[in-house]
Amino acid sequence: MENKSCHVIVLTYPAQGHINPLLQFAKLLASRGLKTTFATTYYTVNSIDAPNVHVEPISDGFDEGGFKQASSVEAYLESFKAVGSRTLAQLINKFDASDSPVRCIVYDSLLPWALEVAKEFGIYAATFLTNSASLCSLYWHIVNGLFTLPVNPEIESLSLPGLPVLAFHELPSFLAYPTSHSAYLAVVMEKFYRLTENDWVFCNSFEELESELVKAMKGLWPVKMIGPMVPSAYLDQQIEGDTAYGANLWEPTTDQCLKWLETKPSGSVLYVSFGSMASVSDEQVQEIAWGLKASNRPFMWVLKGSENKLPGEFMDSIGETGLVVTWCNQLQVLAHKAVGCFVTHCGWNSILEALSLGVPMVCVAQGTDQPTNAKFVEDIWKVGVRAKRNEEGILTRKELYGCIRQVMEGESSRQVRGNTNKWTELAKKAVSRGGSSDRNISEFLAKVMERNK
Ligand code: UDP
Protein backbone atom coordinates (compact mmCIF):
# COMPACT_ATOMS: atom_id res chain seq x y z
CA MET A 1 0.00 0.00 0.00
CA GLU A 2 1.33 3.41 -0.98
CA ASN A 3 1.81 5.86 1.88
CA LYS A 4 0.59 9.06 0.25
CA SER A 5 1.74 11.31 3.05
CA CYS A 6 5.31 10.11 2.60
CA HIS A 7 6.26 11.32 -0.85
CA VAL A 8 9.73 11.33 -2.42
CA ILE A 9 10.75 12.83 -5.77
CA VAL A 10 13.63 11.11 -7.56
CA LEU A 11 15.22 13.43 -10.13
CA THR A 12 17.50 12.08 -12.86
CA TYR A 13 19.92 13.43 -15.44
CA PRO A 14 18.42 12.31 -18.79
CA ALA A 15 21.08 9.82 -19.95
CA GLN A 16 20.61 6.04 -19.99
CA GLY A 17 23.43 5.42 -17.51
CA HIS A 18 21.77 7.80 -15.03
CA ILE A 19 18.11 6.99 -15.60
CA ASN A 20 18.69 3.26 -14.99
CA PRO A 21 20.09 3.36 -11.44
CA LEU A 22 17.90 6.27 -10.30
CA LEU A 23 14.74 4.64 -11.64
CA GLN A 24 15.74 1.40 -9.93
CA PHE A 25 16.07 3.31 -6.66
CA ALA A 26 12.65 4.94 -7.24
CA LYS A 27 11.11 1.48 -7.78
CA LEU A 28 12.71 0.23 -4.61
CA LEU A 29 11.31 3.12 -2.55
CA ALA A 30 7.87 2.51 -4.05
CA SER A 31 8.11 -1.20 -3.22
CA ARG A 32 8.74 -0.22 0.41
CA GLY A 33 5.52 1.80 0.56
CA LEU A 34 6.60 5.36 -0.24
CA LYS A 35 4.76 7.40 -2.80
CA THR A 36 7.53 7.90 -5.36
CA THR A 37 7.60 10.30 -8.28
CA PHE A 38 10.29 9.95 -10.92
CA ALA A 39 11.11 13.29 -12.59
CA THR A 40 12.87 13.36 -15.93
CA THR A 41 12.97 15.63 -18.98
CA TYR A 42 10.11 15.96 -21.47
CA TYR A 43 11.89 14.10 -24.24
CA THR A 44 12.77 11.09 -22.04
CA VAL A 45 9.58 10.86 -19.99
CA ASN A 46 7.77 8.61 -22.48
CA SER A 47 10.53 6.03 -22.36
CA ILE A 48 9.81 5.28 -18.69
CA ASP A 49 7.73 2.20 -17.93
CA ALA A 50 7.65 1.52 -14.19
CA PRO A 51 4.17 0.64 -12.93
CA ASN A 52 4.54 1.53 -9.22
CA VAL A 53 6.28 4.82 -9.79
CA HIS A 54 4.56 8.08 -10.76
CA VAL A 55 6.34 9.83 -13.61
CA GLU A 56 6.45 13.61 -14.14
CA PRO A 57 8.28 15.69 -16.73
CA ILE A 58 10.52 18.61 -15.87
CA SER A 59 12.11 20.96 -18.35
CA ASP A 60 15.78 21.40 -19.21
CA GLY A 61 14.84 24.22 -21.59
CA PHE A 62 15.15 21.97 -24.66
CA ASP A 63 11.94 19.99 -24.55
CA GLU A 64 12.07 18.58 -28.06
CA GLY A 65 15.51 17.03 -28.21
CA GLY A 66 17.43 17.95 -25.05
CA PHE A 67 21.20 18.01 -25.10
CA LYS A 68 21.40 17.68 -28.89
CA GLN A 69 19.57 21.00 -29.31
CA ALA A 70 21.97 22.95 -27.11
CA SER A 71 24.90 24.84 -28.63
CA SER A 72 27.39 23.51 -26.05
CA VAL A 73 27.68 21.47 -22.86
CA GLU A 74 27.90 24.76 -20.93
CA ALA A 75 24.71 26.08 -22.53
CA TYR A 76 22.87 22.84 -21.79
CA LEU A 77 23.88 22.63 -18.13
CA GLU A 78 23.12 26.33 -17.56
CA SER A 79 19.71 26.02 -19.13
CA PHE A 80 18.91 22.87 -17.15
CA LYS A 81 19.88 24.63 -13.93
CA ALA A 82 17.71 27.71 -14.59
CA VAL A 83 14.66 26.06 -16.15
CA GLY A 84 14.97 22.80 -14.21
CA SER A 85 14.98 24.58 -10.81
CA ARG A 86 11.87 26.47 -11.79
CA THR A 87 9.90 23.46 -13.04
CA LEU A 88 11.00 21.30 -10.11
CA ALA A 89 9.72 23.98 -7.72
CA GLN A 90 6.41 24.10 -9.64
CA LEU A 91 6.10 20.34 -9.31
CA ILE A 92 6.66 20.47 -5.55
CA ASN A 93 4.12 23.30 -5.22
CA LYS A 94 1.59 21.21 -7.12
CA PHE A 95 2.07 18.26 -4.76
CA ASP A 96 2.11 20.47 -1.67
CA ALA A 97 -1.38 21.65 -2.58
CA SER A 98 -2.54 18.00 -2.79
CA ASP A 99 -2.85 15.21 -0.21
CA SER A 100 0.74 14.08 -0.82
CA PRO A 101 3.24 16.86 -0.15
CA VAL A 102 6.88 16.13 -0.93
CA ARG A 103 9.18 15.20 1.98
CA CYS A 104 12.42 14.52 0.19
CA ILE A 105 14.19 15.01 -3.14
CA VAL A 106 16.67 12.34 -4.21
CA TYR A 107 18.61 14.00 -7.02
CA ASP A 108 21.24 12.91 -9.49
CA SER A 109 24.52 14.43 -8.39
CA LEU A 110 24.99 15.91 -11.89
CA LEU A 111 22.12 18.27 -11.00
CA PRO A 112 23.52 19.94 -7.86
CA TRP A 113 21.04 22.85 -8.12
CA ALA A 114 18.29 20.54 -6.79
CA LEU A 115 19.84 21.02 -3.34
CA GLU A 116 18.81 24.70 -3.44
CA VAL A 117 15.26 23.74 -4.35
CA ALA A 118 15.06 21.28 -1.44
CA LYS A 119 16.37 23.96 0.95
CA GLU A 120 13.89 26.52 -0.34
CA PHE A 121 11.05 24.14 0.54
CA GLY A 122 12.59 22.93 3.82
CA ILE A 123 12.52 19.28 2.77
CA TYR A 124 15.14 16.55 2.91
CA ALA A 125 17.81 16.41 0.20
CA ALA A 126 19.63 13.25 -0.82
CA THR A 127 22.16 13.24 -3.62
CA PHE A 128 22.84 10.10 -5.65
CA LEU A 129 26.35 9.43 -6.99
CA THR A 130 26.29 7.30 -10.14
CA ASN A 131 30.05 6.48 -10.13
CA SER A 132 32.07 4.19 -7.90
CA ALA A 133 32.88 5.51 -4.43
CA SER A 134 36.59 5.16 -5.19
CA LEU A 135 36.24 7.45 -8.17
CA CYS A 136 34.19 9.93 -6.17
CA SER A 137 36.84 9.98 -3.47
CA LEU A 138 39.31 11.46 -5.98
CA TYR A 139 37.15 14.58 -6.26
CA TRP A 140 36.65 14.63 -2.52
CA HIS A 141 40.43 14.60 -2.04
CA ILE A 142 40.78 17.59 -4.36
CA VAL A 143 38.15 19.51 -2.42
CA ASN A 144 39.97 18.64 0.79
CA GLY A 145 43.37 19.67 -0.52
CA LEU A 146 45.04 16.24 -0.84
CA PHE A 147 45.95 16.94 -4.42
CA THR A 148 45.47 19.74 -6.90
CA LEU A 149 44.51 20.17 -10.54
CA PRO A 150 45.85 19.98 -13.15
CA VAL A 151 47.56 16.66 -12.44
CA ASN A 152 51.04 16.65 -13.94
CA PRO A 153 51.16 14.04 -16.76
CA GLU A 154 54.78 13.36 -15.78
CA ILE A 155 53.77 11.92 -12.40
CA GLU A 156 54.73 8.32 -11.92
CA SER A 157 51.71 7.60 -9.77
CA LEU A 158 49.18 9.00 -7.36
CA SER A 159 48.85 7.44 -3.94
CA LEU A 160 45.74 8.29 -1.91
CA PRO A 161 44.03 6.77 1.16
CA GLY A 162 41.97 3.66 0.44
CA LEU A 163 42.86 3.59 -3.26
CA PRO A 164 45.34 1.54 -5.25
CA VAL A 165 48.29 3.49 -6.61
CA LEU A 166 46.99 5.14 -9.79
CA ALA A 167 49.10 5.98 -12.84
CA PHE A 168 48.23 9.09 -14.86
CA HIS A 169 46.49 7.04 -17.56
CA GLU A 170 44.32 5.37 -14.88
CA LEU A 171 42.81 8.65 -13.70
CA PRO A 172 39.35 9.70 -14.90
CA SER A 173 39.70 11.91 -17.97
CA PHE A 174 37.88 14.71 -16.10
CA LEU A 175 41.02 14.99 -13.97
CA ALA A 176 43.71 13.90 -16.41
CA TYR A 177 42.48 16.28 -19.13
CA PRO A 178 40.40 18.85 -17.22
CA THR A 179 40.32 21.44 -19.98
CA SER A 180 38.43 19.19 -22.40
CA HIS A 181 35.73 18.56 -19.79
CA SER A 182 35.60 21.93 -18.04
CA ALA A 183 31.80 22.33 -17.92
CA TYR A 184 31.19 18.85 -16.48
CA LEU A 185 34.16 19.18 -14.14
CA ALA A 186 32.68 22.40 -12.73
CA VAL A 187 29.43 20.58 -11.94
CA VAL A 188 31.26 17.59 -10.48
CA MET A 189 33.38 19.80 -8.24
CA GLU A 190 30.35 21.81 -7.10
CA LYS A 191 28.70 18.65 -5.82
CA PHE A 192 31.77 17.70 -3.79
CA TYR A 193 32.15 21.18 -2.28
CA ARG A 194 28.57 20.95 -1.06
CA LEU A 195 28.43 17.26 -0.13
CA THR A 196 27.84 17.76 3.59
CA GLU A 197 24.91 20.13 3.01
CA ASN A 198 22.84 17.09 1.98
CA ASP A 199 20.89 14.99 4.45
CA TRP A 200 22.12 11.86 2.64
CA VAL A 201 24.76 11.08 0.04
CA PHE A 202 24.06 7.77 -1.71
CA CYS A 203 26.45 5.89 -3.94
CA ASN A 204 25.54 3.12 -6.38
CA SER A 205 28.02 0.60 -5.04
CA PHE A 206 28.30 -1.74 -2.08
CA GLU A 207 30.63 -1.67 0.90
CA GLU A 208 32.22 -5.08 0.30
CA LEU A 209 33.20 -4.09 -3.26
CA GLU A 210 35.17 -1.04 -2.12
CA SER A 211 36.09 -2.14 1.39
CA GLU A 212 39.53 -0.50 1.50
CA LEU A 213 38.03 2.83 0.60
CA VAL A 214 35.17 2.41 3.06
CA LYS A 215 37.73 1.80 5.83
CA ALA A 216 39.90 4.76 4.83
CA MET A 217 36.97 7.18 4.56
CA LYS A 218 35.09 6.09 7.67
CA GLY A 219 34.02 9.19 9.56
CA LEU A 220 35.51 11.49 6.92
CA TRP A 221 32.70 11.71 4.40
CA PRO A 222 28.95 11.05 4.56
CA VAL A 223 28.68 8.60 1.62
CA LYS A 224 26.31 5.62 2.07
CA MET A 225 26.50 2.68 -0.30
CA ILE A 226 23.11 1.44 -1.47
CA GLY A 227 23.87 -0.61 -4.59
CA PRO A 228 24.12 -2.34 -6.84
CA MET A 229 21.00 -0.80 -8.33
CA VAL A 230 20.18 -3.69 -10.63
CA PRO A 231 16.60 -5.00 -11.09
CA SER A 232 15.59 -7.37 -8.32
CA ALA A 233 15.09 -10.49 -10.40
CA TYR A 234 18.85 -10.62 -11.08
CA LEU A 235 19.82 -10.28 -7.42
CA ASP A 236 17.25 -12.61 -5.85
CA GLN A 237 15.47 -9.68 -4.23
CA GLN A 238 11.80 -9.26 -3.59
CA ILE A 239 10.27 -6.69 -5.92
CA GLU A 240 7.89 -8.92 -7.80
CA GLY A 241 8.27 -9.09 -11.57
CA ASP A 242 11.20 -6.67 -11.56
CA THR A 243 13.17 -7.95 -14.54
CA ALA A 244 14.13 -4.68 -16.25
CA TYR A 245 15.07 -1.13 -15.30
CA GLY A 246 11.95 0.15 -17.05
CA ALA A 247 13.54 2.69 -19.38
CA ASN A 248 14.86 2.44 -22.91
CA LEU A 249 15.96 5.54 -24.78
CA TRP A 250 16.34 3.34 -27.88
CA GLU A 251 14.25 0.41 -29.07
CA PRO A 252 15.86 -2.88 -27.94
CA THR A 253 16.02 -5.83 -30.32
CA THR A 254 15.24 -8.24 -27.50
CA ASP A 255 13.48 -11.08 -29.32
CA GLN A 256 16.11 -11.26 -32.05
CA CYS A 257 18.94 -11.29 -29.47
CA LEU A 258 17.39 -13.96 -27.26
CA LYS A 259 16.50 -16.18 -30.20
CA TRP A 260 20.07 -15.95 -31.49
CA LEU A 261 21.55 -16.62 -28.02
CA GLU A 262 19.39 -19.74 -27.67
CA THR A 263 21.28 -21.29 -30.59
CA LYS A 264 24.71 -20.92 -28.90
CA PRO A 265 26.43 -23.23 -26.42
CA SER A 266 26.60 -22.27 -22.76
CA GLY A 267 29.34 -19.75 -21.90
CA SER A 268 30.51 -19.41 -25.52
CA VAL A 269 29.34 -15.93 -26.58
CA LEU A 270 31.31 -12.68 -26.45
CA TYR A 271 28.94 -9.78 -25.72
CA VAL A 272 30.41 -6.50 -26.97
CA SER A 273 29.01 -3.08 -26.04
CA PHE A 274 30.43 0.35 -25.39
CA GLY A 275 27.40 1.84 -23.67
CA SER A 276 25.05 4.60 -24.63
CA MET A 277 27.46 7.48 -25.33
CA ALA A 278 30.55 6.03 -26.97
CA SER A 279 31.46 6.86 -30.52
CA VAL A 280 33.91 4.46 -32.14
CA SER A 281 36.12 5.52 -35.07
CA ASP A 282 36.05 3.70 -38.43
CA GLU A 283 39.51 2.28 -37.88
CA GLN A 284 38.62 1.09 -34.39
CA VAL A 285 35.44 -0.61 -35.60
CA GLN A 286 37.49 -2.51 -38.16
CA GLU A 287 40.11 -3.65 -35.65
CA ILE A 288 37.43 -4.87 -33.25
CA ALA A 289 35.59 -6.64 -36.07
CA TRP A 290 38.67 -8.58 -37.20
CA GLY A 291 39.72 -9.26 -33.59
CA LEU A 292 36.33 -10.85 -32.92
CA LYS A 293 36.57 -12.84 -36.12
CA ALA A 294 40.06 -14.09 -35.15
CA SER A 295 38.75 -15.30 -31.79
CA ASN A 296 36.61 -17.81 -33.69
CA ARG A 297 33.81 -17.50 -31.13
CA PRO A 298 30.19 -16.40 -31.46
CA PHE A 299 29.69 -12.71 -30.66
CA MET A 300 26.87 -10.24 -30.18
CA TRP A 301 27.89 -6.65 -30.80
CA VAL A 302 25.90 -3.53 -29.90
CA LEU A 303 27.15 -0.94 -32.35
CA LYS A 304 24.95 2.07 -31.67
CA GLY A 305 25.20 4.52 -34.55
CA SER A 306 28.36 2.95 -36.04
CA GLU A 307 26.90 -0.10 -37.77
CA ASN A 308 27.63 1.41 -41.21
CA LYS A 309 31.33 1.44 -40.41
CA LEU A 310 31.55 -2.37 -40.56
CA PRO A 311 33.50 -3.69 -43.54
CA GLY A 312 31.25 -5.53 -46.04
CA GLU A 313 33.78 -8.33 -46.31
CA PHE A 314 33.51 -8.88 -42.56
CA MET A 315 29.69 -8.89 -42.59
CA ASP A 316 29.70 -11.40 -45.45
CA SER A 317 32.03 -13.68 -43.52
CA ILE A 318 30.26 -13.93 -40.16
CA GLY A 319 27.08 -15.82 -41.08
CA GLU A 320 25.34 -17.09 -37.95
CA THR A 321 28.49 -16.66 -35.84
CA GLY A 322 27.91 -12.97 -35.21
CA LEU A 323 24.95 -10.72 -34.49
CA VAL A 324 25.26 -6.94 -34.78
CA VAL A 325 22.44 -4.86 -33.26
CA THR A 326 21.93 -1.18 -32.51
CA TRP A 327 20.58 -1.61 -28.95
CA CYS A 328 19.56 -4.55 -26.77
CA ASN A 329 18.27 -5.27 -23.32
CA GLN A 330 21.74 -5.62 -21.84
CA LEU A 331 20.57 -7.24 -18.62
CA GLN A 332 18.76 -10.02 -20.43
CA VAL A 333 21.81 -10.62 -22.60
CA LEU A 334 24.27 -10.69 -19.69
CA ALA A 335 21.93 -12.98 -17.76
CA HIS A 336 21.72 -15.48 -20.63
CA LYS A 337 23.68 -18.67 -20.03
CA ALA A 338 25.23 -18.53 -23.52
CA VAL A 339 27.22 -15.38 -22.67
CA GLY A 340 30.76 -16.07 -21.46
CA CYS A 341 32.54 -12.70 -21.66
CA PHE A 342 31.64 -9.00 -21.79
CA VAL A 343 33.86 -6.77 -23.93
CA THR A 344 32.92 -3.46 -22.32
CA HIS A 345 33.83 0.23 -22.27
CA CYS A 346 33.66 -0.02 -18.46
CA GLY A 347 30.77 2.33 -17.76
CA TRP A 348 29.92 2.00 -14.07
CA ASN A 349 26.47 0.45 -14.64
CA SER A 350 27.89 -2.08 -17.08
CA ILE A 351 30.48 -3.15 -14.52
CA LEU A 352 27.92 -3.51 -11.72
CA GLU A 353 25.70 -5.51 -14.07
CA ALA A 354 28.54 -7.81 -15.13
CA LEU A 355 29.53 -8.40 -11.50
CA SER A 356 25.93 -8.99 -10.44
CA LEU A 357 25.29 -11.43 -13.29
CA GLY A 358 28.64 -13.20 -13.06
CA VAL A 359 30.17 -12.29 -16.45
CA PRO A 360 33.96 -11.65 -16.63
CA MET A 361 35.17 -8.71 -18.69
CA VAL A 362 37.60 -7.48 -21.32
CA CYS A 363 37.96 -3.76 -20.61
CA VAL A 364 38.16 -1.34 -23.53
CA ALA A 365 38.06 1.93 -21.58
CA GLN A 366 37.74 5.24 -23.39
CA GLY A 367 37.39 8.32 -21.17
CA THR A 368 35.49 9.76 -18.18
CA ASP A 369 35.52 7.27 -15.25
CA GLN A 370 36.26 4.22 -17.45
CA PRO A 371 40.09 3.98 -17.13
CA THR A 372 39.76 4.01 -13.31
CA ASN A 373 36.96 1.45 -13.36
CA ALA A 374 39.05 -0.79 -15.64
CA LYS A 375 41.98 -0.62 -13.20
CA PHE A 376 39.72 -1.99 -10.46
CA VAL A 377 38.31 -4.73 -12.72
CA GLU A 378 41.78 -6.05 -13.49
CA ASP A 379 43.86 -5.34 -10.38
CA ILE A 380 41.48 -5.19 -7.42
CA TRP A 381 38.47 -7.37 -8.18
CA LYS A 382 40.40 -9.50 -10.68
CA VAL A 383 37.33 -10.16 -12.79
CA GLY A 384 38.76 -9.32 -16.20
CA VAL A 385 41.67 -7.93 -18.17
CA ARG A 386 42.42 -4.50 -19.63
CA ALA A 387 43.04 -4.22 -23.35
CA LYS A 388 45.87 -1.80 -24.11
CA ARG A 389 45.72 0.70 -26.94
CA ASN A 390 48.68 1.31 -29.25
CA GLU A 391 50.46 4.67 -29.58
CA GLU A 392 47.76 5.94 -31.93
CA GLY A 393 45.13 5.14 -29.32
CA ILE A 394 43.81 2.13 -31.23
CA LEU A 395 42.98 -1.24 -29.75
CA THR A 396 44.44 -3.62 -32.31
CA ARG A 397 42.80 -6.88 -33.40
CA LYS A 398 45.76 -8.81 -32.00
CA GLU A 399 45.47 -7.20 -28.56
CA LEU A 400 41.71 -7.80 -28.44
CA TYR A 401 42.10 -11.41 -29.49
CA GLY A 402 44.79 -11.94 -26.82
CA CYS A 403 42.56 -10.49 -24.09
CA ILE A 404 39.60 -12.62 -25.16
CA ARG A 405 41.77 -15.73 -24.90
CA GLN A 406 42.82 -14.80 -21.37
CA VAL A 407 39.21 -14.47 -20.24
CA MET A 408 37.90 -17.48 -22.18
CA GLU A 409 40.69 -20.06 -21.96
CA GLY A 410 42.87 -21.90 -19.46
CA GLU A 411 43.88 -21.09 -15.90
CA SER A 412 43.42 -17.29 -16.27
CA SER A 413 39.82 -17.93 -17.34
CA ARG A 414 39.17 -20.18 -14.36
CA GLN A 415 40.53 -17.52 -12.03
CA VAL A 416 38.50 -14.59 -13.35
CA ARG A 417 35.36 -16.74 -13.39
CA GLY A 418 35.90 -17.83 -9.79
CA ASN A 419 36.41 -14.23 -8.70
CA THR A 420 33.38 -13.00 -10.63
CA ASN A 421 31.16 -15.57 -8.93
CA LYS A 422 32.43 -14.44 -5.55
CA TRP A 423 31.43 -10.82 -6.28
CA THR A 424 28.04 -11.94 -7.54
CA GLU A 425 27.34 -13.59 -4.19
CA LEU A 426 28.54 -10.52 -2.27
CA ALA A 427 26.39 -8.21 -4.41
CA LYS A 428 23.32 -10.33 -3.67
CA LYS A 429 24.13 -10.35 0.02
CA ALA A 430 24.55 -6.56 0.15
CA VAL A 431 21.02 -5.94 -1.17
CA SER A 432 19.29 -8.79 0.63
CA ARG A 433 17.42 -8.12 3.91
CA GLY A 434 19.94 -7.00 6.55
CA GLY A 435 22.82 -6.70 4.03
CA SER A 436 25.06 -3.63 4.01
CA SER A 437 23.18 -1.72 1.29
CA ASP A 438 19.78 -2.78 2.56
CA ARG A 439 20.62 -1.45 6.04
CA ASN A 440 21.57 1.95 4.61
CA ILE A 441 18.32 2.10 2.64
CA SER A 442 16.24 1.03 5.65
CA GLU A 443 17.78 3.77 7.81
CA PHE A 444 16.88 6.33 5.16
CA LEU A 445 13.32 5.03 4.91
CA ALA A 446 12.82 5.08 8.67
CA LYS A 447 13.97 8.70 8.92
CA VAL A 448 11.92 9.94 5.97
CA MET A 449 8.82 8.15 7.22
CA GLU A 450 9.06 9.50 10.74
CA ARG A 451 9.36 13.18 9.73
CA ASN A 452 6.37 15.38 10.41
CA LYS A 453 6.14 18.13 7.88
N1 UDP B 1 22.44 -0.69 -22.09
C1 UDP B 1 21.37 -1.36 -22.62
N2 UDP B 1 21.48 -1.82 -23.89
C2 UDP B 1 22.59 -1.69 -24.66
C3 UDP B 1 23.69 -1.02 -24.10
C4 UDP B 1 23.58 -0.53 -22.80
O1 UDP B 1 20.33 -1.54 -21.98
O2 UDP B 1 22.57 -2.13 -25.81
C5 UDP B 1 22.33 -0.15 -20.71
C6 UDP B 1 23.23 -0.89 -19.74
O3 UDP B 1 22.54 -2.00 -19.21
C7 UDP B 1 23.56 0.18 -18.69
C8 UDP B 1 23.43 1.49 -19.46
O4 UDP B 1 22.76 1.20 -20.68
O5 UDP B 1 22.64 0.14 -17.63
C9 UDP B 1 24.78 2.11 -19.81
O6 UDP B 1 25.36 2.63 -18.67
P1 UDP B 1 26.93 2.57 -18.42
O7 UDP B 1 27.19 3.26 -17.12
O8 UDP B 1 27.42 1.19 -18.54
O9 UDP B 1 27.54 3.37 -19.64
P2 UDP B 1 27.24 4.81 -20.29
O10 UDP B 1 26.22 4.58 -21.34
O11 UDP B 1 26.75 5.71 -19.18
O12 UDP B 1 28.56 5.20 -20.85
From TrEMBL:
Write down the EC number: 2.4.1.-
What InterPro entries has UniProt attached to this entry? Glyco_transf_N (IPR058980), UDP_glucos_trans (IPR002213), UDP_glycos_trans_CS (IPR035595)
Tell me the Gene Ontology biological-process terms attached to this UniProt entry: monocarboxylic acid metabolic process
Sample GO molecular function, one term: anthocyanidin 3-O-glucosyltransferase activity
Residues in Glycosyltransferase N-terminal domain copies? 6-44
Q: Which reaction does it catalyse?
A: an anthocyanidin + UDP-alpha-D-glucose + H(+) = an anthocyanidin 3-O-beta-D-glucoside + UDP
Q: In which pathway does it act?
A: Pigment biosynthesis; anthocyanin biosynthesis
Matches recorded under Gene3D superfamilies: Glycogen Phosphorylase B
Q: Which PANTHER family match?
A: GLUCOSYL/GLUCURONOSYL TRANSFERASES, GLYCOSYLTRANSFERASE
Family affiliation? Belongs to the UDP-glycosyltransferase family.
> What protein is this chain from?
Glycosyltransferase
